[in-house]
User: Fold these one by one.
Assistant:
Number 1:
Amino acid sequence: DTTRPMYVRAAPLGTRFIVLIAEDRSEAERLEEVRRDFIANISHELKTPIGAVSLLAEALEPAADEPDRVRRFATRLSTEAARLAQITSDIISLSRLQASDVLNAPSEVSINQVVSRAIEQNRVTAEGRGIDLVLARAKHAKVMGDAQTLEVAVHNLIANAIAYSPEGTRVGVGIDVDDGVVSIAVTDQGIGIAPEDQDRVFERFFRVDPARARATGGTGLGLSIVKHAAQNHGGQVRLWSQPGRGSTFTIQLPQAATDAGSAADRTNEG
Ligand code: ADP
């Protein structure tokens, strides 16, 4: 316990220092609470698919003579297994991102390539749901960082835009560079997010409508991963949304210093 000796030593310096230590302690308490909540949430999230897998496995044997039921149970077993795999991989991504503020070995990353890949990964889902997924604007942009982490972040935004939009709408992705800031914007014409939920959607496991999110295969971790990925790159995520009209999520990142000259040239060319 290092707090008490510091407290005693600090006392003669006046009340200001004591206040600082008091704040420090409550920050530690807050972090501990966040950690406890996270573990409680993970256990809760895992319980549902694990319970389903056990029940289905038990139900399989008595159904052995009924091929239709066996087939149905098998399909549900793979759905639950896929869900477990998704939750596990999201938890791993998130704890990696939270473990370090700075990326280990940042390299120059083409945002154009990151965005094209993320779009391609979502192409089939978009088509399946009757959504027009397009690259609306694309300036040439480079940042320093980790391509795979950024790809996961952009992928999550596009996957959400598709999941929370009705059939026949459009999801547009844009890349802009302005004054040393690279913006990747994902815009949908979907259900939107109420003002009171707009900060909360970035919290781990928060979902506006848990039943619906579960049906779309969401884990509630997607946007926290996006937020931490942006922050680890010295950036941030912005959200504009109106219920019933749609949402725009924008990842803003510092432009790579080596890229500044060439991007400015292109802008001047129009
Ligand atoms: P999930 O896996 O549930 O999608 P996320 O962390 O990615 O988890 O998102 C958290 C919640 O934010 C979602 O459950 C949903 O309620 C809301 N949300 C995220 N993206 C959108 C969007 N593009 N349009 C409307 N709601 C969204």
Note: Residues 156, 160-161, 164, 188, 190-193, 201, 206-209, 213, 218-223, 247 surround adenosine-5'-diphosphate (CB under 6 Å).
Number 2:
Amino acid sequence: MSDERIYPVKPEIAASAHFNTEGYRQLYEQSINEPEIFWAEQAGAFLDWQHPWQEVLSYDYPKGEIAWFKGGQLNVSANCLDRHLSLRGDQIAIIWEGDDPDQQQQLTYRELYHQVCKFANVLKAQGVQKGDRVCIYLPMITEAAVVILACARIGAVHSIVFGGFSADALRDRILDADCRVLICADESYRGGKIVHSKLNADKAAAQCPNLQTLIVIEHTGHEIPWQAGRDISYRQAMQAAAAECPAEVMDAEDPLFILYTSGSTGKPKGVLHTTGGYLLYAAMTHKYVFDYQEGDIYWCTADIGWITGHSYVLYGPLCNGATSLMFEGVPTYPSPDRFWQVIDKHQVSIFYTAPTAIRALMAHGEAHVGHTSRQSLRILGSVGEPINPEAWEWYYQVVGNSRCPIVDTWWQTETGGILITPLPGATDLKPGSATLPFFGVQPALLDHDGQILEGPGEGILVLSHPWPGQARTIYGDHARFVDTYFGKYPGYYLAGDGARRDADGYYWITGRIDDVLNVSGHRLGTAEIESALVLHKDVAEAAVVGFPHPIKGQGIYAYVTLNVGVTGTDALKKELAVLVKEEISAIALPDIMQWAAGLPKTRSGKIMRRILRKIAANDFDNLGDISTLADPAVVEDLIAHRLHL
Ligand code: WT7
């Protein structure tokens, strides 16, 4: 498109950045032409290895087999902590900003190291061994960093479940990974309200027969129910724990963590990441994408329950010896200037957040930004969903005072780290485009027959070669891994997104091409929400689709067919909402529920979601061919009863 606005690289940024345009081009080329040499160099530069690898890369996409740095040995927590002690033991590793603006903490690398060693001993005392899975259900508190790194230290595989997920969702994830230990908080604060972490954990734990231990971190310190024999006080256990704990020597391909994410069908899948490749990729992308420099104060607003929190609140920054800010609260509490207040208070220089937050704050008006300084900012980042050019411009001009490049980073839980992104000193920016591939990343566009599209055009986004941060399997279901990512277009990793490539080779992500929704940057499967709705005795059938939502990016539109004789009431809608909250989370609540007399189905009984999406989007003119429907009249009825926000 010729009307696209371009923001050229700023000379003052390029002058001190790790890469300028030419530097990026050259290294990118090398990373593609000589990948093994390239990645070996990076692995040596970014990580401390206890034993060298024998083979940089071996892979077989059709079998879903991917291995990086085979034979190499290292420990993630030693790379994030021990090796920093001599140089930066007294540097702040984590700045914690509470939900309450008066609450804050700082942990140096040395303090964090000591706490991690102690908690590693606590886990060992509970019988946790290398390879065991530990479930972590925590708010954004410094202890989360401690327990995560402690798992890595002893080779236990952590499975973090977002603190906003329900007890049932937590239970399913504990069972799937067969975790024996669960770590929760007593309670936490979010936007001034109490979140009952322990109550949810209790409810989940009661339904997990193999779960032996619940370690409770005292955060609010309020009175909570206690099950003697099972529950352990974090504070007491830490007091009793020995201070030294050697880091377990791990193979590069040993599992580091499992993280559940939604797919287009079935239950959430446990995406598994391993040790060497993941850490290298998280650290390297953190340094180069955000142009991280010594002395930066870096803040990624993501929750540790999502991959962004794993890679860019903890592992990447700590591996690089950075100071990473952890925020317990929400952007609008106590007022919609909270982000900018925190930036001024801690002199944040790199800020990474989601478009949905930007749009929400934009809606509150510029006045909430204008009275803050934000002079400390140098780089802005965006992640989680496409950023609309309007939000991009506001972020750039109002938040960054037109001084700070925005890196719009495209990636996924499965990719471990950022794949398509600008580099601050190297890439001219176009609002709404994630721009160009990171080193070693080879995106391609396919048509529906799986043919490669050359030059400008739009298609199915795939990656033709592995990168070190790539997921290795779905825990307990390798067949699903192969099927989901490598089955449909053999020889490629299928991301599940569509994209357009322009004449400059820039990528514009157009959104998911499967039945996965992206609601406020949260990934949800339509099937999961439908399953929750049909649990109700009065519901015959449900179909869920996304629709354009001004703040959330995508909203959730649910068409619900009731059993014969049941009348749709507001009370029933409330019951369904409770069900979704209990089964999944408040983030999965439908924005709109429409009672549907019938759903558009083909004669073979397949629901035609394409039509439901059009109706939800108010786009009635392009419904396409509906003559193949078993009963075309249902479409008229759905349109007649379409509801609005
Ligand atoms: C999906 C992955 C990336 C970590 C957080 C979400 C969408 C992500 C962008 C972006 C357009 C984006 C994609 C992707 N997405 N970043 N910069 N531009 N879309 O991880 O929960 O695994 O979701 O988020 O649709 O497939 P996730």
Note: The two ends are 32 Å apart (CA to CA).
Number 3:
Amino acid sequence: AKRNGRNTFAGFEPGMDTDLKARRELDADLAQAVERGELSLAFQPRVGLKCGSFVSYETLARWHHPKRGEIKPSLFIPIAEQSGKINEIGNWVIREACRQSLDKLGGAPISVNVSGHQLRTRDFVENVLAILEDVGFPPDRFEIELTESILVEDRDRALTVLKALKRRGIRLALDDFGTGYSSLSYLRAFPFDTIKIDRSFIMNLATDKSSLAIAEAVMDLGRALNLSVVAEGVETVEQLTILASRHCDEVQGYLFSQPLPADKVAHEVDKNLAR
Ligand code: C2E
Ligand code: CA
Ligand code: CA
Ligand code: CA
């Protein structure tokens, strides 16, 4: 596009100007969202298939915007990453997740999503440990979920940080497995405890042979490397049956519970497991 001033530019790409404006507004609003108490957490159970009961909860950030209502994390997390606000939000998520687990979930193990920007912050490891210690949450009940792209961006640094977290007892999960770069060498080099098979493979498990083959390969890999394998996005009994027959370690998805506030989620799990 030629830069003939703002109007020409906007006319050349309709919608761009308003998108940009909306984004700037959200960015400005997000800057105060934590202080104003607009963020909250939803917890989704990860259910162990061997014990047939919940193993832990994944923590997912929610933003209730005073004017626009619920804003999806897939929209506001990237904005927070760009503005650098992700560190404050990320710290809030970690602290609040631990606190709510202790207060409302009997101190159940939890996992939180961490973005590359957080991992690259100076003193990330010390910062996380300080929060856990302050709240009184045991590190071995705390798991960090990371996507592969984070590892690719700065491999050496990521490796150093993950090893340091691991030494301090924090667990590590490789999220959205199969969607990113999926270099198997990451599984060997990085000290993961858990692999999460991306929802896109689970979605078509019953109908698509290649999705099933990939899911099976990941489960075999998990066994061989002594990692716990979690299937994400399990919505049907059929999917569950397939995963259980292949000895998947854990399952997570709407079949068991949507992500819910802490005081609602424990009840939901009991109800659905009783069926
Ligand atoms: P993710 O880590 O892959 O989280 C799983 C997403 O799948 C969640 O979307 C969850 O609500 C959804 N989900 C769970 N079970 C099912 C199912 O059975 N069917 C379907 N269709 N969806 C299911 P959500 O909560 O909108 O989060 C989207 C993404 O935003 C997350 O993907 C994660 O990458 C990011 N995110 C969320 N909270 C945080 C956070 O506190 N920090 C960071 N850095 N990222 C976050
Ligand atoms: Ca995740
Ligand atoms: Ca995921
Ligand atoms: Ca995802």
Note: The beta strands are 39-48, 53-65, 69-71, 110-113, 142-147, 171-177, 194-197, 228-231, 250-251.
Number 4:
Amino acid sequence: THQWRGIIEEYRDRLPVSDTTPVVTLREGGTPLVPAQVLSERTGCEVHLKVEGANPTGSFKDRGMTMAITKAKEEGAKAVICASTGNTSASAAAYAVRAGMVSAVLVPQGKIALGKMGQALVHGAKILQVDGNFDDCLDLARALSDNYPVALVNSVNPVRIEGQKTAAFEIVDMLGDAPDIHVLPVGNAGNITAYWKGYTEYAADGVSRRTPRMWGFQASGSAPIVRGEVVKDPSTIATAIRIGNPASWQFALAARDESGGLIDEVTDREILRAYRLLAAQEGVFVEPASAASVAGLLKAAEQGKVDPGQKIVCTVTGNGLKDPDWAVAGAPQPVTVPVDAATAAERLGLA
Ligand code: F0G
């Protein structure tokens, strides 16, 4: 009888809702904070994973989407639109179903993971594949919402940030205070903005005594914030963060500078190494973009930037099932055996 009620009910007093707001929820949030044994050993720190792939549609986007769709409903919207590298569209499509709304999604042609496309399809979204990248999709989504009766639910909509800040609340509620360092992947830069807002709100109200240093990591081929300039043709295997002109760029810089943090890059090779480590040694299956946080932590540790004894939280943003191609790629094909215990035992190395 006592299940988690979703982020709006759990944090109602810290979100822009009233008693009459029609809450649209799939009971998102309340995600596991999992101690990371191998990462803790490697860094000499106490490392935790905030496993956002455990949200209803398999990514952190649900925290923002419950707010965005709830407010759209409150304002009487009949249709919502978003640009997406896949997770936002999956979430928008699902929450639109709950709200009885039409969803339209714009995705970069050929550059979104199959699982995410499947989600948008099965939830009945109207999907357009755009001949361009995410940044082009976002320009188009803004133009459509400016000129047609459709509400924009990308993270440029400030209520998305309000919803996503609740992940920081959950971490402080679990640990009793903010960690020393919070690490996360950066794409459009909404999430780093949201976490920083959550941590600073809790600290300002005395719920926590401190705020963490915010460490964000972009993929090397899509690292405009690190380079200090727009990347025209971003590339990375981590399609979720294949973004060359992040909408919340300035907020990400503010989070970095106000927290004494950093924004750096990790290569696709480093991302895949962290992806495999998380699955094979921590038991946590994430999508490649999510592994950018852990890849960044490991890189920083190798560079001697991580003093031992600290409390560190890495957000792993999306479920590995979204993009299983990378789990299968390069792995040996399972052998086929007859229905015979002796043969099976021999092949399993038991005999
Ligand atoms: N990790 C995953 C799995 C994502 O899907 C995203 C963003 C990020 C990290 C980066 O978060 O954009 O707030 O800096 N995905 C967006 C989408 C762009 O359309 O699903 P950010």
Note: Residues 59, 61, 84-88, 155, 185-191, 240-241, 287, 289-290, 317-318 surround F0G (CB under 6 Å).
